[in-house]
Specification:
The chain is α/β, with parallel strands linked by helices and 162 residues long. The chain has a domain of 91 residues. 38% of the residues lie in helices and 16% in strands. The protein has four helices and four strands; from the N terminus they run ααββαβαβ. A four-stranded mixed beta sheet has the order 2-1-3-4. Helix 3 packs across helix 4. The longest helix has 18 residues. It is rod-shaped. The chain starts with a helix and ends with a strand. Its main location: membrane. It is found in: Cell membrane. It holds the Pfam family ExbD. Belongs to the ExbD/TolR family. One of its GO terms (molecular function) is transmembrane transporter activity.
Length: 162
């Protein structure tokens, strides 16, 4: 039992209703997929760690610069037991095997080499490493040198192949 008033209200609602846009079946809204992709990207960037000691293998060098050892402070890096390295000076004397003591001895050795240089001062450091020395150990030594000596122009790395 509809009344004329109910019909008038229904007609008025139909006049104010916005027409719905019909979508094609082949059109797809990819906005949620893009949102999820960006959320995952942000998650992985925030959760990842940038640790230079976890670098993989370093490619073989084909050529290098010719650097004179007499113009450089030279440190030899040889593998020890486990992750330990044996550091030695140009004259063959070994540095301590304790990492904290190594840091102070490296700084002392390079300071001495820079001061005793005759004529032009030594402004570069050469690290001679065995091919079995881990990259993280070489990076650790470079960081010690870089933090202690801001005026050193360059640190050169040479790898001895077996």
């Amino acid at each position: 039992m509809s009344t004329d008033l109910d019909d008038a209200v229904d007609d008025a609602e139909d006049d104010f209703a916005l027409p719905r846009k019909k979508r094609d079946d082949d059109e797809m809204d990819i906005t949620p997929m893009i949102d999820i992709t960006f959320l995952l990207l942000i998650f992985f960037v925030v959760c990842s760690t940038m640790d230079p000691t976890k670098i993989g293998t370093i490619p073989e060098a084909e050529n290098g610069l010719a650097i004179a050892a007499k113009n450089s402070a030279v440190i030899f890096i040889n593998p020890g037991s486990g992750d330990e390295v044996i550091l030695s000076k140009m004259d063959g004397t070994e540095l301590s095997r304790d990492e904290d003591a190594q840091a102070s001895e490296i700084i002392e050795y390079i300071t001495g080499e820079m001061e005793k240089a005759s004529g032009a001062s030594k402004q570069q450091v050469m690290l001679f490493g065995d091919s079995n020395v881990k990259v993280g150990q070489v990076t650790r030594i470079q960081k010690i040198i870089g933090d202690a000596f801001e005026d050193i122009d360059s640190t050169y790395i040479a790898v001895k192949e077996n």
